[in-house]
Each structure stands twice: as structure tokens, then as C-alpha cells.
Amino acid sequence: FGRVRCIGRGLFAFLCLFIWTRLRKQDYKSIMSSVDPMFKSLPKNSTFFTIWRIEKMQIVQFPKDQYGTFYTGDSYIVVVASDNTEKPNCFMKSKKAVGALDIHIHFWLGAQTSQDEAGVAAYKTVELDDHLGGSPVQHREVQGFESQRFLSYFPRGIRIQNGGVVSGFKHVEDTTTPRMFHVKGKRRPIVKELPHVSWSLMNDGDVFVIDARTVVFVWCGRHANHVEKLQGAVTAQQLKAEHGEGTIVIVEDGQEKHLGSPEKEYLNHLLPLEDKVVKNHRDMSGDELAEKQHCADIKLYRCSDEVGTLRVTEVKTGPLEQKDLLSQDSYIVDNAEAGIWVWVGKKASHKERTEAMRNAQGFIKKKGYPHCTQVARVIEGGEPMGFKCLFRVWHDAEHPALPGKTHSAHKIAKTVQTKFDAPTLHSNPALSAQMQVVDDGTGKREVFRVRNLNLVSVELRDHGKFFSNGCYVIVYIYDSGTKEDCIVYYWLGQNASTDDKRTAALKARELDDRFNGQSVLVRLVQGKETPHFMTIFSGQMIVFEAADEGINGGSVVTNGNGVAADHNGGVHNFPRVYLLRVHGTTQHNTKAVQVPCTAASLNSGDVFLLSGGGGVVYVWAGRKSTGDEREMAKKIATGSGMEMVLVSEGQEKQEFWNAIGGRLDYTNEKQIQEDTGTRAARLFHLRDRVGRLAPREVVDFNQCDLVEDEVMLLDAWHSIFLWIGKDAGKELAKLANHAAEDYLQDDPSCRDLGTPVIWVKQGLEPPNFTGFFTSWDNEFWKTLPTYESIKNEIEDSNQTLLAMQQQAALYRNSRSEVEKFTFDALNVKNPDQLPTCVDPANKELYLNDEEFLRIFSMAYEEFEGLPKWKKLDLKKKVGLF
């Protein structure tokens, strides 16, 4: 019986445990299962921006006036829904959407957030995703390693403060303890609160703000750039405004001992000057080292739960193509430390969709990647541009491209059928960017060929004729409507020598100097010519393969501009017998390239020009060629000066076959150039990382993202623009010469290294560059505040404060005349509860001598002799502040 009783007790205990466990699980599920009321408050078919914080395992609306402030001990969910009418940001007002919504959900994890809160943030993100239809892009954000998209939402930057909610941390909003912030970043700074105020946390390359409420110090390292100094000063102004009082003191590294007596004393109180030892900025790991690079060795993994267990199988190593992704599956795109993407097909299981982020984090752990590796989940049909650009080919059937922000070589061929002059294109830069032309090609041009490390002038009649083993420099001058603008092209033949290529680049820059650095510089590689380059030769560009030995009998003499003169008229050895394959339908995209002079080179889908050396040029038109292609070929034939004979495929006479060397089989199918799709332009900061400029993308860019002391890279897909800020410096500008090549080399979509590169200087931007920006203001940089202007503004503010203090001093001199009150009457937080005659900022004046001595432990006269900061500290301690 005792044994049965024991078993009964055990069963009862087990049953209790089972019920308790079930109830606990049910309680947790009740928190997580049904749609959170907070989510139901989101407006439908509208744009919005909302932040929630996790508090006691629930999501709580974060105050809008604190958007941009995050606490290290907390977890947050940030959701933004935008259309194409405005740039998404934390200040946007909710309005009815125009077109489809682009929705992104970010869950941000503070460095000291609890595991439970992080778990709730992740789970609630999935719940929110389901509530919004399962189409949003999900992002996991880790403090200190936030994505550029996340940072772009906060135009004034973000501030990361110590503390948190009830999870064991304490906010510091009302404390009087001095705080120190590290300010990093230019247009959108990251202001991070440091553990304490100490020289040991500082370095000479950054800006630090010490907030003591009554005084805010801005300490600028000697190697800090002026834009970050500006942001440090702006941060100090924000802190002063939040406190409603205080003085701002700007301290330059090495000038601490030259401060005025009160400021120097207070700074020494916070940061003892005799202990000053700061780190060298070169020894810091720096933001540049933490920023992600493109990863060329990209991999694709297939995820499947067909047997009830997640399996991850490697599919391929890049380059990746859109057709690699199947709708019934989900995939992980592994770009290593540059980020992990999870793609979920429309027909994938619900489990694969809801557990995608968790699976990605498990993948990161298994791979040994840093915990801060960025993770994003995308749904088929809703892929952002950052994901698409990892693929060599991507087509958006349901989402037509927006004008101005995109570029496609094929679009040019289809839409440009007329001439546009420079004033028209300058007034419509979006069209100029789409077409990649700046005028109709009727400006003035000079053409030079590299010869014996010099430039030899090419005669006008030979303009547009190139040899594949040569290099050329072309100067093009056109009237933009307000002034003359200049473009210096240098064209590199695919068979040219390394010396000739180097000389062409060097001489092009020398010519730019001849124009006082006012030109746009463009590097072109054979086969990758820009539409405008072909336009300036009226669609009659010819590339000969024949090895040209130079100029017949001509001597080369260099003039003062480094340009050689040919004394025998510059007669080139152009071949008499040749076969040219003509590609193109307009003057913007047409060129003729020499191919082997044999019938086997013909193709039914193209048009060819044949010169047999007898003064006749045959225009052979394949039966699958178009009328526009035939017209452009005839235009080139007319320019040869020979008699033109039209030949249609299947109608050839024997003279044609004799000229080409006899009949041979050839291809009957039209060769279609691969269309890699229309791509949106992307902007990148280029940061110096140990002698190499590394890219960091700017999401949803506009003109204000172009920073004057940097080199920026605009990737227009078919061209790369390098924008040189006026304060970038010569060393940074030199590094930029290799930046585009490094960028293309590292691009995981396997870009062509011959992609045109265009150097653009600040203030000289052509319309085919400015057209990629939503709006462009030529006066923009003149209106920006400078570090010096902010300093002057702070000094004026401090002088105003000083005048107020002097007025208060006059008032204090009449202390004996004011009415006196007890300490209890003055020790109130609400100024409205004070006697009407009391000045809230100077409560100590209303204590009699005995009461003052008791409260402050000193006479009023001794108190008056103290520095202001010490008086304020004493007032705070006794409760009269």
C-alpha cells in the first residue's frame, strides 16, 4: 500500500509539473500568438514610421521625440513603409500610399540587452511580418554594426546611451553625473555614450563630447576631420537644448591649457590634464575596419525541410543568376562578413518563411562568422536593390524602373531616336542620366593617338577611326547653355601595350590640367564605349584590328602642351581590304568593328561592310537585320569615300564572293546581346583603409550625401562615376584612381573590369551624373553650415548667456533687499509652487544667512567666490537647482 501511495504521489507531482509547464507555455504563447494590438494600430495602405521597445516582454510605443536614441540594455523593433514619393525617415508623416509600399522591419539589439528581450524582438518581428502580409524585408541589427539602410532613417544620426528599462539597467536621463560621447560619422553621425569620462577612451582622430549639463565640452582630436568636428558641435547644441541651459566650450587637442580659467578648471576636474594620454588614431581599429566590404567569393545554399528537419545544401559559388532561385525553396546567399541574405520563394513552406531569420543566425554560428554579421530576409518579388546586385542577371517583370535613378544600355537603344542639344539635357538631367549623353555630339573635338610616350594629333578626316592596338585621347568641348564645358576621354584598345595605356591616362590628366582641372575625365576600354562617346562621332566609329605601325614617315615633335605634331600630315596605315561588323541603330550606340575578312564571319542577324580594295564598299545586310541597323551601316559606308553597293543576303553577286574570298558557311541565327536588366544607381562612400578605398553604401541617396572631403562612387551599372569632393585632398584623389577597379574586382556579380569610369569634380557635375539624384541644387554646398559658422554661433550663444549671468549678478548684489523664505519653501521641483517673487534660477538668494550656512556649510560670501560649475554642483546636491 505504501508503495502504491508513493507511486501516486509521483504521478500527482508529474501531473502538476505537466500542468504547470503547459500553463507556462500557454502563457508564453498567449503573449506571442494573437496579433499584438500595437500592430493593429498601423495604418493600412499608408506610409508610416514606427519604433517599439521591448518592455517586460511586451512591445511598447517608443516616444516620437526620442526617435534616434537607443539604449544599450534594450531591444527595439523599427518598421517603415514608404512609397516612391519620399525618402523614408523617422520624421515622415503617415499618408496614403502612391503605388506599392516598400516595407522593412528591423529589430535592433543593444549590446547589453537580455536574451529574453532579444528573443521577443525577433519573435514579434515575425508576428508583425505575418500581420503585414509576409512581404516585408526583415533585418537583424546589432548595436555598433547597424546597416546603412537603418542609419539612413535618422537624418540627424543616432545616439546610443547607456542604460535600459526594467531589465536590470537604469536610464541616465535625470542624473547629474557627467557623460562622455564618441561622435563618429559625417552626414548622419553615430553618437555613442562611453562607460565613463576618461582620457583612456579617447584618440586623436575623433571628436568627443563631455556633457556636464552646465558645461558641454567638445574635444576635437588633432586629426579629426572638419565635418565630424561640425557634428560634434551640433551634438553639443542638441544636449544644451535638452538641458535648457549651459555653456558650450570647444577644445582643440593640445590647446587645453590655453582655455580660460573657469573652463580650464572644470575640464581639469573632469579630465585631469596631467593624466592626458590619448590613443593614436592609426592604432585604432576604426569604423573603416568594421565596415563591410564587397565579397567576391559569394555562395548560394538551398534550405529545405522536406523531411521535417532543416537541411542546408551548397548549390554553387558565384557568380549567381536569378534563375538559380526556385519558388518552392528558400535559400541563403552567403556574402560572408559583408552580410547574409535569406531568400524565401513564394511556394516555400510557412515554416521556412517564419524560421528564416533563426536559420540564418544558426548558419552564421556554424560558419564562425562574427555575431554582428548583418542578416536580412527577403521574399520572392520583394527583393531590395542590395540583394539584386549580388546577381549577375536580374529582371523585374512586375516593377518597372523609375526614370533618373536607373540605367540600361538597351533602354537607350529603344527610346533615343532624336537629337537633344546640351541646354535641353541640362534642363532635364534625368533624361541625360538615362541616355548617358550630355549633348548631341556637335561640339568641338580634338583627337590624339599615343605614340612614343607622347600624343600625336589625328587629322579631322580620321576622327572616329581607331586601332585595337592603340590608345587615344579625345578632348571634347561643348556649350552647356551657360558656359563651355569640357570632357577628356582616353580610349584603351584591347591589344594596346601597357606603356601606351599608362601614357594615355597620364596625358589625359595633363590635358585636364591644361583646362585648370575643370574637365570631366572618362576612361574607356574598347568594347565598352559610352553612348556620348559614340555620339560625338555621329555613330560612325570604326575599330580596326590591323596592326598599325604608326604614321608613314612622320616625325614626332612635342610642343609645350605635351602634344606631338606630325610633319607629314598624319597619314595612317588604314587597311584597304577589311570586313566590318556594324552594331547599332542610332548615332548613340553604333560602331563598326573589324572581323576576319572571310564569309564565315557573316551572320544573318547583322549588317557588314566589305572593302575588297577596289574602291567599292559593299553593305551586306543579313535577312534578320533591322532597317535602323542597315541605315546606320550605310551612313558609315558613305563616310568611307568609296562607291557604296547594297547587297541583301541571298542576292549576292559573284563580285561580292570574290571580294570576301569565296563562299563559306556562316551563322544564320541573330546573336542577341545579353540583357542583364535595368539596375538602380547606387552611391558609396569610399573610405581609406590602409591605402585602399573601401566602399560603404548610402541607401536612398540624395545630393546631401556627397561629402566634400571624400571621394564618392556612383555605380550606374553601365558606368562608374567617381565624385571628387573639393576638400578630398591629393592623396585621397590619387587613391581614387584605383578605387573603381577595386570595386569592380570585388563585386560579387562578376562585373566587367572594362566598365567606363568617369571622374567628376565637385561643382563641375555634368547632367548625366546629376540626373541620378532626385533633385540637384548647384548652390547646395554654399548653404551648408560649416564648422567655423557653428563655432561662431556657439560663441554668440555663450556671450548671450554671459550677459544674462551678468544681469543675474547685478540682481544678486541686492540679495539683502529680497524677501527671505525657509529652505522647505524653496526646495520644490515645480517652479509654479515657488513664491511669486522668487527667481527659480537663483533660489539661494532667498535664504537668510543662518539658513544659508546650515544648508551649504559655508557663508554666502565664500559661496560667491566659487567657480560657476562648483556652485551649480552644490545647488544640485542640496536641492536648490
Automatic annotation (TrEMBL):
It comes from Ixodes scapularis. It holds the Pfam family Gelsolin. Residues 815-881 form the HP domain. PANTHER family: VILLIN, VILLIN-LIKE PROTEIN QUAIL. Coiled coil: none annotated. Belongs to the villin/gelsolin family. Keywords: Actin capping, Actin-binding, Repeat. GO terms for biological process: actin filament capping; cytoskeleton organization. GO terms for molecular function: actin filament binding. This is Putative actin regulatory protein supervillin gelsolin/villin family. SUPFAM superfamilies: Actin depolymerizing proteins, VHP, Villin headpiece domain.
